[in-house]
Amino acid sequence: MIAAPVIxxxxxxxxxxxxxxxxxxxxELQTPFLSPAEVEASKAVMGLDSQLIAxxxxxxxxxDGQLAGSGGWSRRATLYGGDHSAGRDARMLDxxxxxxxxxxxxxxxxxxxxxxxxxxxxxxxxxxxxxxxGRVELMATLAGQPLYRAAGFTAIEHIMDSNGGAPVPLVRxxxxx
Length: 177
What we know:
Number of helices: 5
Structural class: alpha+beta
Number of strands: 7
Distance between the termini: 29 Å
Strand order of the largest sheet: 1-2-3-4-5-7-6
Number of domains: 1
Mean pLDDT: 95
Helix content: 25-40%
Largest sheet: 7 strands, mixed
CATH topology: Aminopeptidase
CATH architecture: 3-Layer(aba) Sandwich
Strand content: 25-35%
Low-confidence stretches: none
Oligomer: single chain
């Protein structure tokens, strides 16, 4: 029997381990979907927005006592990107008229296909629902799309983000809670 991931809120003390895990995930899990130039450019448009941790909205998953993945949700307008990304918007969303954001979902390459992404995504959806949101949106990588489709998300828009140099294909997806 496969053990279920243990989910907890991340803290500032987790930042170094989270950033290292995210770098591995970007470098390894995107390669079947993106060219080397696109993987490199992804580093500029992906990553952790530490505001999620400050807001108490960022989860990490542990399996076998090790960091296996992470992800969060947000009441803020920014849809994707890390601390270093351009175009962040800290405006608070209206849960009655706007969707919450699912942000910065990552699985450590050593823990793929073990329910980590699903567990973190469920924690995000439950927290957003408890905060009064009736809908969530996210910006999916090509590697992440299968998980989100399986969880009931549908594509809203396809974009190419060129902020990191080479254009990186992304898909805005949404789901009613």
